């Protein structure tokens, strides 16, 4: 099991315990609601999760954070546990001709009961991977989700829920051409204050990352973030960041914009009250657009009474509850939490390849798979959730003049003048 898979499993586990960790649900009621449900668990396939197991995960997370939710590494990793070709053919035949209707977990149990496999020799994950490879592991039950009655709601406390979304902005001159802009924003469900919002020239994740960091630093940490199913809100980087910060990331049902009514209303307000100002006094750069927008938010939107707030302003409501806000103890931690992640195997020359660029890592990692986290400034090596080294871009020109340690080789010259007088021998 590689590091990426371990992190995916940890994210799944965090998704189940987050409502308990953040105090959104009472444990007894929550466990009763989840009892008997079947989940598609990363790597393991369809499984039922016992309440006792979720309680263990919650305890581990509270004690040691997100890293504690990752599965422990196998003590026997590296040893082959493959099925023979004949075993595979027999299992696939049984699946297709007799037991296609069964969930994979039940099918695995049937194989054991029939004596076709032995539990201590062939794991559930091995069977699940085999069936997935041949498209024989799909769900065999249909979930029906009727349209729920839609009711208005609002949280009584600030920073319980932030709604997040992206909106198309005005065209402005960028590098000599008229280009479209995109507004990425958060809004607090209780106070209607905007923790942070900014215009960008693209819809890439880098914009969401910047807005999220600024929002957390300026307005504290929310309990939940409610976003749609857009690509940037489904990114693994955002999921990992929320998990490590103890924030529950919730996604709306597809094609259901009404469920994020407050931020949709914010965008409408911006369109009717801010955009007209740009027509009478156009901006000439993205920087100028964001500067004027930030000033409008603070001086107009945040200071204007809202009917839904009983005539109070977002600024008044938010600042009346400062005692309930959890600010980040060390904002610098955001720099590592929001790094992009990857996994690479270190080559024999101590290098890895990232986006067609070679990087050098410490020789101690040669032959190993390592976790990489990166941004536009640097590439870092992480181990067990902690930064242990930095990967440096390879310079072929400089390396041509670097002396290397002597390699054992039949062509190496043996110096008989004594250990202290030996010189380093370059190798090609």
TrEMBL record:
Residues 142-322 form the Integrase catalytic domain. Residues 417-428 have a biased composition (Acidic residues). GO terms for biological process: DNA integration. PROSITE patterns: INTEGRASE. InterPro entries: Integrase_cat-core, IstA-like_C, RNaseH-like_sf, RNaseH_sf. Signal peptide: none annotated. GO terms for molecular function: nucleic acid binding. Residues 400-428 are annotated as: Disordered. Belongs to the transposase IS21/IS408/IS1162 family. This is IS481 family transposase. It comes from Lentibacillus salicampi.
């Amino acid at each position: 099991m590689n590091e990426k898979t371990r992190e995916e499993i940890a994210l799944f586990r965090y998704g189940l315990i987050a409502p308990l960790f953040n105090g959104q649900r009472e444990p007894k009621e929550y466990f009763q609601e989840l009892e008997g449900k079947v989940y598609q668990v990363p790597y393991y396939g369809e499984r039922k999760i016992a309440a006792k197991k979720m309680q263990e995960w919650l305890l581990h997370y509270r004690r040691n954070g997100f890293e504690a939710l990752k599965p422990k590494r196998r003590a026997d990793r590296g040893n082959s546990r493959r099925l023979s070709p004949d075993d595979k053919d027999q299992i696939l035949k049984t699946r297709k001709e007799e037991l296609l209707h069964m969930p994979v977990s039940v099918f695995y149990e049937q194989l054991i009961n029939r004596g076709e496999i032995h539990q201590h020799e062939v794991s559930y994950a091995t069977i699940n991977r085999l069936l997935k490879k041949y498209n024989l592991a799909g769900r065999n039950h249909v979930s029906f989700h009727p349209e729920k009655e839609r009711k208005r709601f609002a949280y009584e406390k600030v920073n319980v829920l932030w709604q997040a979304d992206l909106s198309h902005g005005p065209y402005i001159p960028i590098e000599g051409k008229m280009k479209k802009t995109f507004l990425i924003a958060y809004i607090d469900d209780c106070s209607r204050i905007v923790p942070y919002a900014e215009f960008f020239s693209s819809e890439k994740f880098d914009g969401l990352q910047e807005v999220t960091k600024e929002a957390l630093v300026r307005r504290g940490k929310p309990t939940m973030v409610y976003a749609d199913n857009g690509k940037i809100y489904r990114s693994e980087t955002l999921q990992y960041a929320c998990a490590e910060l103890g924030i529950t990331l919730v996604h709306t049902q597809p094609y259901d914009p009404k469920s994020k009514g407050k931020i949709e209303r914010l965008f409408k307000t911006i369109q009717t009250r801010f955009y007209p100002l740009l027509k009478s006094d156009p901006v000439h750069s993205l920087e100028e657009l964001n500067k004027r927008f930030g000033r409008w938010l603070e001086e107009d939107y945040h200071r204007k009474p809202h009917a839904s707030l009983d005539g109070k302003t977002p600024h008044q409501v938010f600042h009346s509850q400062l005692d309930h806000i959890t600010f980040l103890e060390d904002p610098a931690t955001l720099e590592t939490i929001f790094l992009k992640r990857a996994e690479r195997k270190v080559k024999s020359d101590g290098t890895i390849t990232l986006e067609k660029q070679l990087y050098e890592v410490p020789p101690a990692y040669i032959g190993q798979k390592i976790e990489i986290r990166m941004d536009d400034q640097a590439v870092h090596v992480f181990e067990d959730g902690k930064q242990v080294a930095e990967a440096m871009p390879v310079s072929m020109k400089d390396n041509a003049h670097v002396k290397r340690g002597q390699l054992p080789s039949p062509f190496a010259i043996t110096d008989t003048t004594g250990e202290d007088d030996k010189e380093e021998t370059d190798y090609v």
